[in-house]
């Protein structure tokens, strides 16, 4: 090997050794950016379904370059923590590992797991959430709950698909606010996950809601709100259980509903 070739190989080796620490440094910065974004998600500052700040703003917030941020976002997307939507931005997903969520979603879609099984889990979780939320309710979140009930009442006649959509979204948001009131970000993610899982296995139509009297559903939500505002944890837990008793009746097979109500499929909601 001549001297010129030896010098060239030596230069390449030195350049490679110099580049390695740089790659490692960029990796550490990317991992730290990922950790900081996960902190924001699990501290409840970025909730499931919410849009992440724009790249420039988020990079400044966590103190990294935009290239480092993009690397961290790629990792978050690959792990299922965020969803990147074209021309819309990056959105927080429920932080349930895909290794757990994918099998559950599959057996729900194939009707291997019954709807009642999912409702039983939500009942256990949401009665706990109501008790927890009643321990230290905040004025702002109670006001938001009142606005949800007001929207439900304004659209209770369900005369159009638009009214039904507004009613249903206010109902969903009511329960989401209670999840946020618990102050437990892990539960917030579980709530979103099981809500989505329930929607995969049950489609509540406008006709079904009319049959089951949306007005009674509003009354139940008003009772929950009153318990959260004034009556305390025991009452909040009790009223949430009453709500799920109605849900259980709603999803029961029609002959069973008729036997319970005694009125050809119609009953108090």
Integer count of domains = 2
Order of helices and strands: HHHEEHHHHHHHHH
CATH architectural designation of the largest domain: Up-down Bundle
The overall pLDDT average reads: 78
Number of strands: 2
Sketch the major β-sheet: 2 strands, antiparallel
In what order do the strands lie side by side in the largest sheet?
Answer: 1-2
The name CATH uses for the topology of the largest domain is Four Helix Bundle (Hemerythrin (Met), subunit A)
What's the CATH superfamily of the largest domain, by name? GntR ligand-binding domain-like
How would you explain this protein's 3D organization?
The protein has helices at residues 3-42, 55-62, 66-78, 98-109, 115-133, 139-154, 161-181, 185-201, 206-211, 214-231, 233-251, 254-261; strands at residues 82-85, 89-92. It is mainly alpha-helical and 269 residues long. The chain folds into two domains: 3-92, Arc Repressor Mutant, subunit A, CATH 1.10.10; 98-261, GntR ligand-binding domain-like (Four Helix Bundle (Hemerythrin (Met), subunit A), Up-down Bundle). Strands 1-2 form a two-stranded antiparallel ribbon. Helix 1 packs across helix 3 (66-78) and helix 2 (55-62) crosses helix 3 (66-78). The longest helix has 40 residues, at 3-42. It is globular. The N and C termini lie far apart (89 Å).
Write a concise keyword list for the protein shown above.
269 residues; mainly alpha; Four Helix Bundle (Hemerythrin (Met), subunit A); two-stranded antiparallel sheet; 12 helices; 2 strands
């Amino acid at each position: 090997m001549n001297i010129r070739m030896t010098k060239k190989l030596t230069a390449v080796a030195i350049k490679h050794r110099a580049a390695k620490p740089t790659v490692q440094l960029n990796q550490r910065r990317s991992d730290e950016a990922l950790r900081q974004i996960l902190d924001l998600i699990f501290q409840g500052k970025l909730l499931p379904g919410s849009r992440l700040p724009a790249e420039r703003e988020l990079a400044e917030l966590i103190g990294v370059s935009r290239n480092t941020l993009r690397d961290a976002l790629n990792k978050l997307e690959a792990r299922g923590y965020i969803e990147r939507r074209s021309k819309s931005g990056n959105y927080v997903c429920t932080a349930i590992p895909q290794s757990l969520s994918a099998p559950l979603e599959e057996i729900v879609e194939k009707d291997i797991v019954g709807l009642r099984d999912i409702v039983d889990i939500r009942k256990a979780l949401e009665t706990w959430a109501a008790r927890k939320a009643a321990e230290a309710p905040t004025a702002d979140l109670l006001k938001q709950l009142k606005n949800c009930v007001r929207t439900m009442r304004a659209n209770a006649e369900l005369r159009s698909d638009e009214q039904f959509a507004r009613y249903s979204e206010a109902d969903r948001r009511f329960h989401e606010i209670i999840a946020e009131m618990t102050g437990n970000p892990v539960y917030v993610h579980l709530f979103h996950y099981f809500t989505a899982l329930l929607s995969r296995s049950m489609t509540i139509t406008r006709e079904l809601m009319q049959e089951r009297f949306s007005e009674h559903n509003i009354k139940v939500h008003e009772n929950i709100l009153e318990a959260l505002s004034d009556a305390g944890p025991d009452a909040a837990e009790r009223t949430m259980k009453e709500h799920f008793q109605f849900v259980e009746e709603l999803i029961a097979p029609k002959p069973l509903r008729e036997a319970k109500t005694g009125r050809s499929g119609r009953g108090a909601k």
